[in-house]
Write the structure tokens for this entry.
Amino acid sequence: MGGADLSNLKQHAVAMAVFTSIVAPFGGFLASAVKRAHGAKDFGTLIPGHGGVVDRFDCQIVTAPFVYLYLQQFL
């Protein structure tokens, strides 16, 4: 891997890190809005005290489409 390739890879890594850091919290906001709209405290009881499995992955659910679109557009 040449120096130019490594530099390009680093640029994409930084762009993805910044991008996902900005977008990921909106998954939690969206999940909270859905729970409040339905009067639920948690999405499930599989993981007691943690709000269920969906609460553990809400940020990834929202971030995944953005990451996919970035990869399709720029790589």
